[in-house]
Amino acid sequence: MKIFSSIILSLLFFSSGYSQSNFAVGVNAGLSLPVGQLTEFYQSGYSANGQFMYNISDQFMAVLTVGYSKWDVDQDALNKKLEDQGKTFRLDIDSQFRIIPLYIGARYYLTKGKHRPFLSFDFGIYSYEFKLTGNIVNTIQGADIPRIPIPDQKETGTESTLAIGLGYFYKLSKHWYLEIHSKYNVITNAFSINEPDQIYDPEDSSSIYGFKGELAFFTFMAGIDYRF
User: Can you tell me the distance from the alpha carbon of 145 to that of 135, in angstroms, rounded to the nearest whole number?
Assistant: First the structure.
């Protein structure tokens, strides 16, 4: 939070020496779609963000973005993997993965006028929270084996992230703009559920754990921007 506050205060200080018409703020919301390994464990989620923008020139804009993304476990997909592997148990779990990214980036506008498609590049840090709780359930017919509780797990931290994107601005009026954009986001050292073939040791009910590695996702968002 100290980093977030410092950057925002610096932006406000920087703005004092320039025309207000160069500055804009915006809010966006939409879908967050897992890519690669993240699709094996989590359902499609949602994202939202707030943006502070400064027009460097007619074609370039500097952007500070604070966001939020959340995904819930895809339990059916996870249990299907276990069934395909011939496992004699299934998982009754609840798991969430949430991130709060802080990006500093730039946009390049491809055209001028009311219709303005753009390319974007952002990099920064994100704070994450990984939670896992639930039970292991026996699937052997006729076996009287109780549900095995999984120790509750929670992981938090801060890591690096980057995103590349494509978007579109449409000028609604002197101050108001419609924004639509999509981004490919990469987050490093993220926690998710580990691979199903490694997920359970019958001698150790805590063997369901967070996998730390690089994860990716697409965001598709739309929103409104206000230019001062």
Answer: 12
Its sign, for the CA torsion 85, 87, 89, 91, is negative
The pTM of the full predicted model, rounded to 2 decimals, is 0.79
Q: Per residue in 75-84, pLDDT tens?
A: 888 888 778 8
CA dihedral 108, 7, 160, 68 (to 10 degrees): -80
> Among 170, 174, 164, 142, which residue's Cα sits nearest to residue 219?
164
Contact 47, 221 (CB under 8 A): yes
Instruction: Report the distance separating Cα 172 and Cα 16, nearest Å.
Output: 27
Q: Which domain holds residue 90?
A: 24-122+130-227
Asked if residues 73 and 43 have their Cβ atoms less than 8 Å apart, the reply is yes
Phi, psi of 82 (to 5 degrees): -65, -40
pLDDT of residue 13: 53
Cβ 6 vs Cβ 50: under 8 Å: no
165 in a domain, yes or no? yes
- Residue 166 forms part of a structural domain: yes
pLDDT range class, residue 27, cuts 50, 70, 90: very high
d(CA 41, CA 74): 5
- Beta-carbon count within 10 A of 115 CB: 11
Count of domains in the chain? 1
**Averaged pLDDT score across all residues of the chain:** 82
Residue 118 corresponds to which tokens in the numbers above?
A: 């753009």
* 135 neighbors 112 (Cβ within 8 angstroms): no
The two tokens of residue 197 are 């073939």
CATH of the domain at 211: 2.40.160.20
